[in-house]
Automatic annotation (TrEMBL):
GO MF annotations in UniProt: oxidoreductase activity
Superkingdom as given in the UniProt entry: Eukaryota
Protein name (Swiss-Prot/TrEMBL): FAD-binding domain-containing protein
InterPro entries in the cross-refs: FAD/NAD-bd_sf (IPR036188), FAD_monoxygenase (IPR051104)
Keywords noted in UniProt: FAD, Flavoprotein, Oxidoreductase
Gene Ontology process terms (BP): secondary metabolite biosynthetic process
Keyword Oxidoreductase listed: yes
Chain residue ranges for the region called Disordered: 1-21
Length: 296
């Protein structure tokens, strides 16, 4: 795959108190990770006319019955494999905007934007970096450390895997057996009865998040630090409550699917065998009511 189109040597942070303004020019968006969320966001930005690049550390692309109910949700629900969906999205991204085998090891941000540094010492600079790099996320680890240093990280937030060094991360290829074992050993004794989200929420969020984020990125004009902060804050305010509401539902789904106590087994039997169809349809309507739409 081609080299990043905006690879530049690392530059020192700007000392200016006022960030530069780029009038009538959309932000250049860097996307870290070519999973479902990263690819879907790229497709939306392509349609919105927002410049972007996707950087994936792997050399190759990574890789639901449901009832037909168009009368309730407007379209049929169908079954297909997740790798097929990923492959379909992958083919929609122009090759020059998709950079494989680019393993980000560090990032630096200032008033002029954000710079990603890869394991081969090349860099890419943009106005915004969106982390969609899933497990062992370098973006997430950077944010975790920065917020913790500034005293802004809630005590309830725990980021696993922070003991890994940048070199270990760069050498990693993803979900290997060794990495899986290390992650399991790290949170084996973490005190929680279940581990939501459950019931496919991850894949759903990987498509809903980009829709709302693309809507807000489209509204940045002109491109500067103040406007970027405003639209990202608006995105958070619009998205947070919907995400928060998923947790009790995911917790209940986990009980129904994985619960092994007597009460949970009885509950599972009742729900899957005796629950009236009217209640099932009512829950389906509730589950599918939140459907964000692209506004551009």
């Amino acid at each position: 795959m081609s080299a990043p189109s905006e690879t530049v040597p690392p530059t020192p942070s700007s000392s200016s108190a006022v960030p530069p303004v780029t009038p009538n020019k959309p932000p250049h968006v860097l996307i870290g990770g070519a999973g479902l969320a990263g690819l879907f966001l790229g497709i939306l930005l392509e349609r919105a006319g927002i410049p972007y690049e996707i950087f994936e550390r792997s050399a190759e692309p990574r890789q639901l019955g449901v009832a037909n109910c168009p009368d309730l949700i407007g379209y049929d629900r169908v079954i297909f494999s997740r790798p097929e969906l990923h492959d379909m999205l992958f083919k929609k991204i122009p090759k020059e905007k998709l950079h494989m085998s680019n393993k980000m090891v560090t990032l630096d941000q200032d008033q002029d934007g954000v710079t990603m540094t890869f394991d081969d010492n090349t860099t890419a600079h943009g106005d915004i970096l969106v982390g969609t790099d899933e497990a062992h996320s370098t973006v997430r680890q950077h944010l975790h450390k920065t917020l913790k240093k500034d005293g802004l990280l809630p005590n309830t937030i725990i980021q696993f895997g922070l003991s890994s060094t940048a070199d270990e991360y760069a050498a990693s290829s993803g979900w290997t057996n060794q990495e899986n074992k290390g992650m399991v050993d790290e949170f084996r004794d973490f005190k929680t009865p279940y581990a939501p989200p459950s019931g496919g929420a991850g894949a759903v969020n990987a498509m809903q998040d980009p829709v709302l984020l693309a809507n807000h990125l489209y509204d940045i004009n002109p491109t500067n630090l103040k406007n970027t902060k405003t639209v990202l804050s608006d995105y958070k305010n619009e998205r947070f409550d919907a995400i928060k509401d998923q947790y009790p539902q995911s917790h209940m789904s986990a009980k129904l699917i994985y619960g092994h106590t007597l009460w949970e087994r009885v509950l599972r039997y009742v729900v899957f065998n005796w629950l009236p169809e009217s209640l099932q349809r009512k829950q389906l309507v509730k589950d599918t009511a939140y459907r964000p739409q692209a506004t551009f």
